[in-house]
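Sample entry (288 residues):
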Amino acid sequence: MDKKISEQYNPLVSIIVPIYNSYINLNDFLESFLFSSYKKFEVIVNNDSRSTDEPERLCKQYIEKGLNIKYIEKNQSMAQGRNRGADFSSGEILLHLDSDMKASDKLLEECVDLINKGFDALVIPEESFGTTFWAKCKWLEKKCYRGVEQIESVRCLRADIYREIGGHNEEMIFSEDKDLDIRVKDAGYKIGRTKNLLWHNEGKLHLLKIIKKKLNYAHTANIFAEKHSQEFAWQINILNRYLIYFRNIKYLFSNPAVYIGMIFMKTFEFGFGGIGYFLGKIKKYEKK
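Predicted structure, serialized as tokens:
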């Protein structure tokens, strides 16, 4: 489309968040937008109908506080949930977030400003926090990945572009966000980066939860590998991660226990991710 978002001066931003039993996180998520300096936005809360924690009641409370919220129950998986959320959105700009995130008060304002200046899509850096040792390891991992193009992905983009490239790939669980990022780049769109952050709540993170998540995600890695072979080869090469960590060796001296824990955690993740990947290939073979 030739129409530029810059013609919109004050566009509506649609914030899309798929949820599943996310009441506590959703409360913090919605509360963060009460303080947004940019007020022209809507929040599309897309719940999994199997949820048991009554998020619709919470959404009504925040509607009474002044938030523009659309509550739907069309979420079946992360990528599918994002696509259905986009179907119900009205904004010229889409912002895809997770329920365990919080936005800084100037984030939406900066997103609109950058897209008005000619950027088509935006990467938003993250800062993790949590209450356990492993949450601190995740915090350091995100620190190390700041600005690494192969890892960070687009979260905010013009709605017309999202629809033009076909939205999220609903076959994917593994790296559905990076798949979208690659397709936006391959289409030649101009990508910017915000200075304002997203705060990612890792909560009471423990190693077993990390491993289970990696196993669950990795079983669809073969789909990503078929579509993006070069990017997949980079992602599965653990030496690329170790090189990033080595470039951030300063954290070994300032946070030695957390730095060593991060290396241990990522090594375990890669190991179990490999198991999940091969289990996924076996299942695919058995279906033939």
